[in-house]
Amino acid sequence: MKRIAAIVLSVFFTTHLYSGNELPRILSLKDGSVLHGEILSAGMKDGITWKYGKEAGAQAVFPVGMVNEIMINKLSSAGLDTGSVFLANGDELKGEVVALDNETLSFKTPYAGVIKIPAASIEAIFPSRYWDEAYKGPDASSKWSRVGKAVVKDKNSMVLSNNARTGCFVILPEMIRIDFTVDGEASLVWEMCLQIGEDRKRGNYLVMKIDKDKLSLFRRNESKQEEKISEISSKALDEAGDRKFSVTADRIRMIYKIKLNGEELLSLSDPKEEFFKKRDEKEAATTTGTASEPFYFKNSSELSIKIKEVVVSRDGTEAIRKKFAEEKYSRSDVIISEKVFSECRITGVAEGKLSYQTRSQMLETPLKNVGALKLGNRKGAAAVGQSVNLVRIFFAADEHITILLDRVADGKVLGRMACGADISIPLEQVGKLVFSPDLELKEPSETANRLHFDNGDVLYGNLVAVVPGTSLSWKLETGIPPLKFPVSSAKEAIFRGKALKQEKDQAKIRLVNGNIVRGEIKGLDNQKLSLKTSYAENLGISRLALDKILFSDSANEWNSDYAKWIVEANAEMKNDRILVPAGDKPQARCEIQDSPEKLRIEFDIIFTEQMKFMVFSKSKDFLNYDIYLCAGREKDPLNVGQGVMYGSATRHRYKEAHVKLLLDKENKFISLNLNSETILATRNNLWFAHIEKAKNILLMVKGASAQIKNFTVSREDGSVLDVSDEDVISLKNEDKIAGKVQDISGKNVKFDAKDAGQLDIPAERIYVLNFSDKAAKKKTVAGKNSVTVCFNGYEETATFDLSEYSVEKQLVSGGGGIFEKISIPMGIVDKIVFGSDEEQRQ
Q1: Which of 229, 283, 414, 531 sits at a 20 to 30 Å CA gap from 98?
Q2: Is residue 420's pLDDT more than 90?
Q3: pLDDT for 780-793, tens place per residue?
Q4: Per-domain residue ranges for the chain?
Q5: Is there a contact between 436 and 388 (Cβ–Cβ < 8 Å)?
Q6: How far apart are CA 182 and CA 178, in angstroms?
Q7: Under CATH, which architecture does the 563-714 domain have?
């Protein structure tokens, strides 16, 4: 399911490979990679030739063994009045019955013309399109071919006997079937107290009344008003044999009691809330063979268990099939019309008429009057077995066939059906091709390198080359030549680097563009800050890019003039982050102050354990109150303003979330965006933010502890609020000194204080140093070759113009603007974001 969701997501976000009305194809590999493009050709020996871009040479040949599926077209059912045929291997075909004899069915399809299907391969035929819905029943898996195989002895039904009256009750999810036999001319009234749907009120009754002439089925409500559901004559009952008849009730979950002519035969032993929970856990009991439900029988009623096969209509009000008598008529065909079930021998279909033979006579009926045909055992061509060449072709909805693929060429899929018939299908009629359809695929490793694209594509493997501003090359782990893409089409490459040990004397420097670097300060002049880091002896950073320096290990940047953080319960504020343990109550609160303009609030979440992704819909009832965060792409705003939450289906697991809240002048919540490095929650592990009176942000983690870091408050465009011409030093004793930083050398800060003149302040006394240059507070514009590198366990980020990506040196290097020159070892790189940081956050 995750793989399907990822492909659907890729369709939705397609933007850069194709345009116009043409729907691009989607190639899904068994390693989890997903790639848009166009299929040029395919063959079991030659592989699949795939064009993945408009650039010259943007094509590759993938061995068939690598491919999971190819999405060709997004098709919808035409709604034509056509029939269906279900094959023994699970295939389903739509079309029209042309002819049928003892060996072969001629079936006309809209995508392959008339095809010949061996009768031995056929499970059932439905001349009308309405009856195949009934065939599926309340669950698409409850097909005839599976019912018989899935039935577990002594677990499927109960038979109640009271004197000469007998009733058989089959309890399945979403339905109940009742078969009964009446002796002589007796009249019966059955009353059953039912739970219908999720409603647990016990006032819903299903009532059957039987007299000499007819059987009537009613639904009785709490006010004892009866609504007739169906009616059948005694003649039809006689034709059905032994006056047996089956009825169903929609979405029945449990029977509470049953009465026969006013006499109670059955009731629950313990119909309490605990029983419902037990029932939910055993909802699939009838197909898995677990223990039967605890019924209590009164008046010495006989209890016995029998096997039943049931198929019901989708609305759950009419059964269309009774138990076949395989023991006596193992080679029989069954014709099902609207009210009549006939066990017979079909002799053929021709010119729109069905010929069949009962025990006593030959009959003929118009095919349009026939609801369904269940074919008995026949001798004929054997079905094709398993093969590496098997490909399942999906059309609209659940319609599909399985073929032995020969090739894809000239706009057609050519091959042989699993039942033995040759077939040619126009590619425009195909929804998707699934290779090795019965193979269970493994999820990719959580630590595997991967490349994400703007259109939702993802590739697993390794980044082997980058030509700055032009192209990049990515090599899949399967051994085919590297694939080459424009850098403009790539979003980010994720590597999962190792975190470095934090040295005691290192300061944390925050830059005006949001970058964070750590290191030992060597000096500061009017041009640059010199920094010794774990990966560079002398890293030069432009002074104009400095926002603040945190000298102390205990320093944090949570509190500002516009936002003040308060921790509660077991939460803890330590260093530059807040530690939030798992719990059921909000533990960290951010009080937002009034502002003359819009505020952009950003922070990161790191979970201590990985949690799978789940999308939640947003209800208008929670508008401006509860905002459930879920994994999504940056282009997927969770637009709470309209009461709608958009999320992205993804098959990956992450541990980190970047949250952006935008507040207007009145501090009302407007939007919430998540970047692609989000992970979040299962239904039982919800992390959420809560807006309380548009003043507070409350944070809580359920099921996993988390850390909150890198909290900033800025203008809507990302620039810093209330810029002044003065630097400000905040001391550990909470004093603040305004002035101008002259130099930082050794472990002292030379500071020209506004009121105290020249000062030489030891760095160990300083909490935070805030820089003031107005020019530095403006949004930094990155160059066309810009990348943002996250490294050191996502503790540090650097945005610069890429000059070199070297596999041999294992370095990513660049500079310009903020950094004079920077080289980061690939061993500590977590992610490379292509394009400027500001572009990625729009």
Answers
A1: 414
A2: no
A3: 555 678 999 999 88
A4: 148-304, 507-556+722-839, 563-714
A5: yes
A6: 13
A7: Sandwich (2.60)
